[in-house]
Specification:
It is built from 15 helices and no strands. Helix 9 (255-281) packs across helix 14. By secondary structure, the chain is mainly α.
Length: 416
């Protein structure tokens, strides 16, 4: 079957979770004081939405053969990197072959998950009508089945972006992510648990997509959940069998060095994807929202929440491709079904709208954004308005009881 290109429709699909229309009040409730949107009127927010709709329509109308060629080239590059990397690792007993093979395999896994898999599963290339590059058929090099990711990420996260209590991508349900969340002593170790999460990121995502903590105790009474869990177990077996058994065995006497290379490649992919995703929603300046923000939310307000709840990363073209263009997280959250290669093109227009409406366009180089995200992880592991030095001092002199008292005293003292 020969795939044909089809000009995508510019009309945004009606989403029952977004009311559309206009309102006499602003529903968006940012969890900080003063609110960064208090200068906006409901009419201005809806006008912002209309201007964003125009940007989307103009871009989607211009998609064509160059875009199709781009994704096909990236897929080909990813496959050549994997083939070359695995071929080199047949000789992994040689240090040079080990380094070259591990680097190529790491790069192929990053491309597969970020610029290829994540974006195809979002439906960014469905307009091509190519059954081999379509969200309904694509599966990726990750233990999380694509259909699970579509639900937890595409549907839940992108609808309820940074709404505390609804968006589980915000800390993956295991972190304190906002000053307004009540502090508990268990949060003290969240920098450690988050590092473990980064190390085992693909497995953590699989558990998160399954809502493992929510369903584990009642699993035997929930056959539907057990069926979904079996999908994950089968995917884990497939991935582990390929990386940790098949290709090491094919390496013959180099079994152990090839096994080690595959472990390292998966670790590199995990740390990279975790870093990129954390930079998208956790650096300083990114806003979170109260649950009531989505009650009666208009289309313009949905756009506004995506703008305030995301952050970008500056860098080279190679870096942007390696991030799956999630370095343009703001643009991606505004238009998740727009082909990723178009985000750099529209970014200046989006930033201009931030300036026009008096909003902060959060961006910075990778090292700054990663550092900022981890600083927030550490800060929020402690009681509000309490430094690490203060925390240690309180624990030494008053113990955990004293730190709990401090948390109660500062519960409503929020960082700006």
């Amino acid at each position: 079957m020969t795939a044909t290109l089809e000009r995508p429709t510019t009309a945004r699909t009606t989403d029952a979770r977004i009311t559309g229309g206009s309102s006499e009040i602003i529903h968006t409730d940012v969890t900080m004081t003063p609110s960064p949107i208090e200068h906006l009127t409901p009419q201005q927010i809806e006008q912002l939405g209309r201007e964003l709709d125009e940007i989307r329509a103009e871009t989607m109308d211009s998609l064509g053969e160059k875009d199709a060629q781009y994704i096909r080239r990236v897929i080909a590059a990813q496959r050549y990197l994997e083939i070359g990397g695995r071929a080199a690792l047949f000789f992994s007993g040689n240090p040079i072959a080990w380094v070259a093979g591990t680097a190529a395999l790491s790069a192929s896994k990053i491309l597969d998950n970020m610029e290829v898999g994540h974006n195809i599963i979002h439906g960014q290339w469905d307009w091509m009508r190519d059954p081999k590059i379509h969200s309904s058929t694509w599966e990726w090099d990750n233990v999380t089945p694509a259909d699970h990711w579509k639900n937890s990420h595409n549907k839940v996260h992108h609808t309820y972006t940074n709404v505390v209590g609804h968006d589980n991508d915000l800390g993956y349900g295991i972190m304190r992510v906002d000053d307004a969340q009540k502090w508990f002593p268990g949060y003290l170790i969240q920098p450690v648990t988050q590092f473990i999460n980064a190390t085992l990121f693909e497995y953590g995502i699989a558990a998160y997509d399954l809502e493992l903590g929510k369903h584990w105790a009642t699993r035997h009474d929930n056959p539907e959940w057990m069926a979904e869990a079996k999908k994950v177990v089968n995917k884990i077996k497939k991935q582990a069998g390929k990386d940790y058994l098949l290709f090491p065995l094919l390496s013959g006497p180099n079994f152990l060095t090839t096994l080690g290379a595959n472990v390292v490649a998966n670790l590199v992919r995990n740390y990279w994807t975790h870093s990129v995703i954390m930079c998208g929603h956790f650096p300083a300046g990114v806003k979170t929202f109260a649950k009531n923000s989505i009650e009666g939310e208009t289309r313009g307000e949905w756009y506004l929440r995506q703008m305030l709840g995301s952050a970008n990363i500056t860098g080279s073209t190679a870096m942007h491709i390696a991030t799956g263009h999630l370095s343009y997280q703001i643009e991606h959250h505004l238009f998740p079904d727009m082909p990723s290669r178009r985000y750099p093109e529209i970014a200046p227009k989006i930033e201009a709208l931030f300036d026009k409406y008096g909003l902060e366009y959060v961006t910075g180089p990778l090292h700054k954004q990663v550092g900022s995200a981890w600083s927030e992880i550490i800060r929020l592991s402690l009681p509000n308005d309490t430094s690490l030095r203060q925390t240690i001092g309180i624990l030494r002199t008053k113990g955990m009881k004293g730190l709990r008292a401090r948390a109660r005293q500062t519960r409503h003292v929020y960082a700006r």
